[in-house]
From TrEMBL:
Taxonomic lineage from the root: Bacteria, Bacillati, Cyanobacteriota, Cyanophyceae, Nostocales
4Fe-4S ferredoxin-type domain: residues covered: 55-84, 95-124
EC number(s) given by UniProt: 7.1.1.-
Required co-factors: [4Fe-4S] cluster
Keywords: 4Fe-4S, Iron, Iron-sulfur, Membrane, Metal-binding, NAD, NADP, Oxidoreductase, Plastoquinone, Quinone, Repeat, Thylakoid, Translocase
Pfam families assigned: Fer4_7
Protein name: NAD(P)H-quinone oxidoreductase subunit I
Residues annotated to bind [4Fe-4S] cluster 1: C64, C67, C70, C114
PROSITE patterns named in the record: 4FE4S_FER_1, 4FE4S_FER_2
One annotated Gene Ontology cellular component of this protein: plasma membrane-derived thylakoid membrane
Reactions catalysed, as given in the entry: a plastoquinone + NADPH + (n+1) H(+)(in) = a plastoquinol + NADP(+) + n H(+)(out); a plastoquinone + NADH + (n+1) H(+)(in) = a plastoquinol + NAD(+) + n H(+)(out)
Topology in the lipid bilayer: Peripheral membrane protein
Protein residues bound to [4Fe-4S] cluster 2: C74, C104, C107, C110
Length: 193
C-alpha cells in the first residue's frame, strides 16, 4: 500500500512539473504572438553590419613585410605567406599571400597583431560559394574592397536591432535621421579623451 502511495505521489509531482514546463514554453510562444514580424527581404533589403563586425579580411600587398606574425597569432596558423630571401637587398621578398575563408574563424587576431596594419576586417559577409576551394582567397581577392550596403542602389539598407531608437523593433520606414540607441564610435573616442 505504502509503495503504491509513493508511486502516486511521484507521478503527481512529475505531472505538476511537466505542466509547469509546458506553461513556461507556451508563455514564450504567446509573448511572440503579440509582436509584429520583422522580416528582411534579402537580397533586396540588407542589414547594415555593425561597426565592429568581423567580416571578410582585406589585405594590402604593398604594406606586407612577410614577417609572419599573422601566422603565429592565428589559432590555426592559417595565413599562407610565401616569400623568398633576396640576396641582393638582404630582405624578404613577398611572392604570395592567401587566407582560406572556408577555415578561418574570423577571430581577428591576425588583424590585431599585424605590425604594418595591412590587414583589416570588412563588413563583407556574403561569402557563399559553390565549392570550398573557392573560399581560398589569394592576395588579389583579398585586396578587393567590399561594396558598402549603404552605397548599393539595388539594396534597401536596414538598421540592425542594436542601432534602432529605443523601443523600436522594426527598421522599416524609419527616418534616416532617427537617433540610434547608444553612441557612435567617434563620440565614444571623444568622451575618452
Ligand atoms: S603580420 Fe601583417 S605584415 Fe606580417 S606577414 Fe602577416 S600580413 Fe604581412
Ligand atoms: S581571423 Fe583568426 S582564424 Fe582567420 S586568419 Fe586571422 S587569426 Fe586566423
Amino acid at each position: 500500500m505504502l509503495k503504491f502511495l509513493k508511486q502516486v505521489a511521484n507521478y503527481t509531482k512529475e505531472a505538476v512539473e511537466a505542466g509547469r514546463y509546458i506553461g513556461q514554453g507556451l508563455s514564450v510562444t504567446f509573448d511572440h504572438m503579440r509582436r509584429r514580424p520583422v522580416t528582411v527581404q534579402y537580397p533586396y533589403e540588407k542589414l547594415i553590419p555593425s561597426e565592429r563586425f568581423r567580416g571578410r579580411i582585406h589585405y594590402e600587398f604593398d604594406k606586407c613585410i612577410a614577417c609572419e606574425v599573422c601566422v603565429r597569432v592565428c589559432p590555426i596558423n592559417l595565413p599562407v605567406v610565401d616569400w623568398e630571401f633576396d640576396k641582393t637587398s638582404k630582405k624578404k621578398k613577398l611572392k604570395h599571400y592567401s587566407i582560406d575563408f572556408g577555415v578561418c574563424i574570423f577571430c581577428g587576431n591576425c588583424v590585431e597583431y599585424c605590425p604594418t596594419n595591412c590587414l583589416s576586417m570588412t563588413e563583407d559577409y556574403e561569402l557563399a560559394a559553390y565549392g570550398r576551394h573557392e573560399l581560398n582567397y589569394d592576395s588579389v581577392a583579398l585586396g578587393r574592397l567590399p561594396y558598402k550596403v549603404t552605397n548599393d542602389p539595388m539594396v534597401t539598407p536596414l538598421r540592425e536591432l542594436a542601432y534602432l531608437p529605443e523601443g523600436v523593433m522594426d527598421p522599416h520606414d524609419l527616418p534616416s535621421d532617427a537617433p540610434r540607441a547608444g553612441n557612435h564610435p567617434e563620440n565614444l573616442v571623444k568622451h575618452e579623451k
